[in-house]
Structure formats: C-alpha cells, structure tokens
Write a structure and sequence with these properties.
Length: 411
C-alpha cells in the first residue's frame, strides 16, 4: 500500500511505525473473512481492511470524525486478521496507533467519555473487590443485565506452603480476577504446587495495563507497565524466579507486549525485554508435566475448549493448550468457528453489548452441538461472558484440573 503521510505524522515514531505496517497491506481482503464485526455488521469499514483505510486517510491528513472513531471503537482487537493475513500486517499495533491519534482529534460525547472513565476507574479501584462481594451477595435480585456481569462466588480453598519448592515462579495479581474469580489464582497455585513449582505474587505488581490502554488512557497504561516491571525486576535480576506465569490470557498477551510499548524508554526498554522473555501462560508451565498429572486424573470428561483470542491469535498457544487438555484426559468436543471471538474483549461487552451478545450466542450455539459437560477457557473475560448465556458450567481449565486433583487426593 502506497502512503503519503501528512507533515505532522512524517518522521515521528508513531508515523514511522504506522507507515511500515500500512505498506505491508496488499488489499487482499482475506482479513474480512475472519473478522467478527464484519460478519455481524457487514460493513467494509467495520473490517480490518476498512479500518486500515480509515487510519491511512487520517495519517495522510484527512480530518477524522465521530464515525471514524466509532468504526475503530467497534474493533474487538481480537487479531484474528493477523492470523489470516498472508502479508504479516501487524494490524493490532496499527489500530492502537489509529485510536490514539483519532482520540486526540475527536471529542467524545459526554456520555461516552463518562462511561469509559467510570468503567476504567471502577475496575482499577480498591473498592472494586468489596463492591463485587456485595453484588454477589445480592446476585439473586439484581436485574438480568447486571446479574450476567456478576459471577457466582465460589470458595477459593486452602493454599499450600509454596516456599519449600526449589522452582519458583511469579504470578500477576491483576485487577478484577482476584475479586471476581479468586478460584482461578488459587487453582493455579495448587496445580503448580502439584508439579513441584512454587507460585507467588510480587508486592507492588498490579493491573497489566490492558484496561487503561483500551479505554483511552494509554499513558496511564504505560505507567502501570513500568510499575509491574519495577515490582518484578529485583526478583528477576537475582535469578529467584524462572518464569512469570499468566493464568489470564488477556493479561499474558498485554505483558508480552511490554517490550514493544516501552521500546523508546531508555530506562525500561531492556528490562521490559528481559521480563517478556520470562512470561509464560500457565499451560506452557504445566504441559511438560502432563504425563505425571494424567495418572491422577479421571478420563473421559466431555469438554469444549474455547481458546480466547489473546491466547490463539496474540500468543499462538491454541495448539499447545488443546494438546495439554487431551494429554490430561479431557475429551474435547469440536465445534465450528473456534477461531472467532466470543465478544467479551475486555470492556467491549459493556461498551458494545449488542455486538458482544450476538457473538456470544453464536459461539454458544456452535459449542452446544457437541453437548459438552463443561466449557473450558483460559481468560476470565471470556469465562464470565460465556457463562452469562448458558447453564453449562464455564470454567478456567486449571480450575477443573485442580478440582479433579483434590477429589483424587480425597480418595
């Protein structure tokens, strides 16, 4: 794709990056076939190719409008198009650039700005946990639209003494997962303990930055990235941990991009690259121990595995994760369009509920054909979103493995 950047963009870091990405696009349109929003809306401007044209026009000097902003907002950032693209277009980075530039030039409506600000601050607030506990206690009387956002609370269970292990890893505290689904972290610690690995959370580490980054606060997100690097660095530098383990693929995908987002920061660029080299999804840590765990687990659990976009398209870990589940004894039920987004996409399901719910129902309809006993996934957002539309249990796979191990230990 030929480009002719406007003077304000030419020669800048963002302009140079965007120009390099744009020039790789050959207009083939393969991306439209796998874009969830294009399948739902049927509008070329709600496809990756259409959004690429919009961003190109803005970088070449055309003034963006609220319509431009809306088309970019509707992108789920699933990166399915990157998996499909034969030219290696880094669409995810390009849409990040486009959104930043457009948001600087187009004033959002008061209502839209307020919703995004409140959503960001609420999810990152220390009051989120007590508010979630209150919501869970009142869940039975909440309106349906709100009830589907509040998962049932389950007991996290006792935690082992992990300091005894020679092998140690770090976990990310995150922002909403400990309050909404504390069983995921507890299950991760117990499963890793079962294979001889101690997992702990470094003081000072918090949200990965994804919430702020995708809600018009990229500078705030970068500050959160630096804070996590600072929290992890002393332990990483001393060689006390072998990996930083992620059990929410959305967080894992974001942390694996720290080196990209901090590449121009001389104080953090190398640290971020060293951190990224240690980041592993929990499936990557457990996979080498599958045979040992298999002897303690039952066989024949009929399950459907929904691979989150951040797992399969951002990180390329769908094959490893599915093979791990098979090795652990699950009977995975195939279903159509497994590559498509479920519609959760972080805060997307709140900001674009109609599209999100249609994608959810399409996904659940495809899964239902196989009549699984449980739907497994690897990201809290997908789990909560899918569970809101089905009576079939939707769980993180590590929770189910943990339950099976504990059941076996009890005889």
């Amino acid at each position: 794709m030929q480009t002719n950047l406007a003077s304000w963009a030419s020669g800048t870091d963002l302009g140079n990056e965007a120009d390099a990405i744009l020039r790789r696009c050959v207009h083939c349109g393969f991306c439209t076939a796998t874009c969830p929003t294009y399948q739902v809306l049927g509008d070329e401007l709600d496809s990756p190719r259409g959004r690429i044209y919009l961003i190109k026009q803005v970088l070449e000097g055309k003034e963006p409008t609220q319509s431009t902003q809306q088309h970019l907002d509707r992108c789920l950032t699933c990166r399915n198009c990157e998996t499909t693209c034969p030219s290696g277009v880094e669409y995810g980075h390009l849409v990040d650039i486009g959104r930043k530039i457009v948001d600087e030039r187009v004033e959002r409506s008061w209502g839209d700005k307020t919703k995004r600000t409140l959503l960001r601050k609420a999810m990152l607030s220390p009051m989120f946990a007590p508010a979630m506990r209150l919501g869970q206690s009142l869940r039975g009387i909440l309106p349906q639209a709100l009830r589907r956002k509040v998962p049932e609370r389950r007991d996290a269970g006792p935690l082992p003494q992990v300091a005894r292990h020679d092998r140690q890893v770090l976990m990310l505290a995150g922002c909403v997962q400990p309050a909404m689904m504390p069983t995921i972290d507890a299950a991760t610690i117990r499963v890793l303990d079962a294979v001889g690995i101690g997992a702990r959370i470094a003081p000072g580490a918090g949200c990965c930055g994804a919430v702020s980054f995708h809600l018009d606060a990229q500078d705030e997100a970068v500050a959160q990235m630096r804070a996590n690097v600072d929290a992890w660095w002393p332990l990483v530098q001393d060689g006390k941990v072998e990996a930083i383990v992620m059990n929410a693929s959305g967080c894992g995908a974001m942390v694996k991009e720290y080196a990209h987002h901090l590449r121009h920061d001389p104080a953090y660029a190398q640290k971020a690259a060293d951190i990224v080299a240690l980041v592993k999804d929990v499936a990557e840590i457990v996979a080498p121990h599958a045979d040992m765990l298999r002897s303690r687990l039952p066989a024949g659990t009929r399950a459907a595995f929904h691979p989150p976009c951040t797992l399969q398209h951002w990180q390329g870990l769908r094959p490893l994760s599915e093979q791990l589940l098979v090795d652990l004894g699950f009977e995975l039920q195939p279903f159509a369009d497994k590559h498509l987004c479920c519609g959760s996409a972080g805060a997307y399901s709140v900001l674009n509920p109609d599209i999100a719910l249609e994608l959810r129902d399409r996904k659940l309809g495809a899964i239902a054909v196989g009549s699984p006993d449980v739907i497994l996934s690897a990201n809290i957002g997908c789990i909560g979103h899918l569970q809101s539309g089905t009576d079939t249990p939707v769980r993180h796979w590590v929770e189910v493995v943990d339950e099976q191990l504990r059941r076996a230990a009890q005889g």
